[in-house]
Write a structure and sequence with these properties.
single chain; alpha+beta; 5-stranded mixed beta sheet; 10 helices; 6-stranded antiparallel beta sheet
Length: 388
């Protein structure tokens, strides 16, 4: 037995007869919600989940919540990250025997002209919405649905960012596909996405670019270069912001600038290291790096693309479970409007999660729209198959 919930823009669920209780809040990347814990029966489609504890939201600051006009947030992560250790709705569905199979799956319809926006199946999968078999990878860490991801490729060429793999999470609550600034900038450069010029990035390249190249050629460890030129500090394993030292010395005025210069340096080293393998000249390498500086995402993470170039843009691929998952331009570009007024937005946005949890990729709706996604709670794995 499985239960399907079809939706247009949001999942709608209902709470009746509120019970006031403990205050609670959740912080997201684009805003936060706060309120207090309540308990009641919850209706999802034709399922009734009894005695579910949830947050009755009284405040939701952030432009995202205002623009999207959410009815609520339906968390499907693990209880390990649940606020106040509240038992999630999915757990109670299983405990109350509302579904037979401990699996839920997503199909996101990317055709904006269709009435049906997508489908969530609680307790199974809908075979009408995917092709071939799913490729499964084990959950690496419970909390989010986190797993190991392989390389990132642009038109089949490695970006050099994940030679030993990266961590990723599948998340329907993230509209775009998010990743570390350095590689997102490379991708946006490759697809011609225009971002905001980073003065710090260009300053680093202009003042230290040739020195960084010399140090790479002399085989100085890439993770030590930025500390060697005093733009970062070295913590024994990698470069970290010298802003940490500024806080210790109570010189907080330089913290923001130090963070920016350290981040810009680390990105420049990454870009140059990857391009050196292509036997570029110093001049062409510096020009290329400056071009990447020009492509750094805007503060809100959005970058625009010329809609007339879509047919010539590269394929961007991700390797998961030993298989390559390509995204075509029409899958990773979001087109808003029609005709001359149409705007094309890059589906790639920057998100820097520091070690040890990062670097971390979030394969949001841009990826899940192209690939039907299965969350297998019983076997602790995530599966992807081409969406139909």
């Amino acid at each position: 037995m499985s239960r399907r919930k079809k939706f247009h823009n949001v999942i709608i669920f209902y709470f009746i007869g509120l019970i006031r209780g403990k205050s609670a809040e959740i912080h997201y990347g684009t805003g936060s919600v706060s309120g207090f814990l309540s308990q009641d029966n919850v209706q999802v489609g034709d399922l009734i989940v009894k005695d579910q504890v949830f947050i009755e939201v009284t405040s939701e600051p952030g432009v995202t919540f205002l623009a999207a006009k959410f009815d609520g947030i339906f968390g499907l992560g693990f209880q390990e990250i649940s606020v106040a250790d509240v038992v999630p709705v999915w757990y109670n569905m299983l405990k109350q025997g509302l579904v037979q199979e401990p699996v839920f799956s997503f199909w996101l319809n990317r055709n904006s002209g269709d009435e049906e926006g997508g489908e969530i199946v609680f307790g199974g999968v809908d075979r009408n919405h995917y092709k071939d078999e799913h490729t499964y990878v084990p959950v690496k860490q419970k909390g989010y649905w986190q797993f190991d991801m392989g390389e990132v490729l642009i038109d089949g060429r490695t970006t050099g960012f994940c030679p030993r793999g990266c961590s990723a999470i599948a998340d329907s609550g993230t509209s775009l596909l998010a990743g570390p600034s350095g590689i997102i900038t490379q991708i946006n450069h490759a697809i011609g996405a225009d971002g905001v010029i980073s003065q710090e990035c260009k300053a680093v390249v202009g003042q230290y670019g040739e020195l960084i190249i010399e140090m790479l050629l002399s085989e100085v460890h890439p993770q030590k270069i930025c500390s060697e030129i005093s733009l970062c500090s070295f913590d024994g394993t990698r470069d970290v912001s010298v802003g940490i030292e500024s806080v210790v010395n109570d010189d907080k005025s330089s913290l923001g600038q130090s963070d920016a210069l350290c981040s810009a340096c680390k990105m420049a080293v990454l870009w140059m290291q990857n391009e050196l393998s292509q036997k570029q000249t110093v001049e062409s390498l510096l020009n290329y790096t400056n071009q990447l500086c020009d492509r750094l995402p805007s503060p809100m993470g959005e970058s625009a693309v010329d809609c007339s170039t879509l047919s010539s843009l590269p394929i961007v691929s991700f390797t998961i479970g030993g298989k390559t998952f390509p995204l075509t331009p029409r899958q990773y570009i979001l087109k808003v409007g029609e005709g001359a007024a149409a705007q094309c937005i890059s589906g790639f946005t920057a998100l820097d999660v520091p070690p040890p949890r990062g670097p971390l990729w979030i394969l949001g709706d841009v990826f899940m729209g192209a690939y039907h996604t299965v969350f297998d709670y019983d076997k602790l794995r995530v599966g992807f198959a081409k969406a139909a």
